[in-house]
Amino acid sequence: VQLQASGGGLVQAGGSLRLSCAASGRTSSNYGMGWFRRVPGKEREFVTAINFSSTWSGSTTYGDSVKGRFTISGDNAKKTVYLQMNSLKPEDTAVYYCALSPVTPKYLWRYWGQGTLVTVSS
Questions:
Q1: Which of 93, 85, 89 is nearest to 68 (CA)?
Q2: Which of 5, 49, 69, 120 meets the CB 3.0–4.6 Å disulfide criterion with 21?
């Protein structure tokens, strides 16, 4: 499985940005996709995830720091997820990585994309 993320860039505080991540290759039907981010010198932080399995289809979870501002959505048929980021803050600046878990509901993030840089200026 390969993941290709896109959509990062520079945005002013208070602005919006949308990231995309497309998965290619064979996956199980019981999979989920998510987003993480990392700031140099800090640990990787969970941002959000969406469950594409038939049982939990469409269920989402969010990290506390992005609740109410970020929204994950996805297209199961296209194996693509989107991260809509609104009301961006300078502290949202990070490299954002998409990931895929071949199992749910307990995620095991086995596959990772290359990361896309998001920079929020104050």
A1: 85
A2: 5
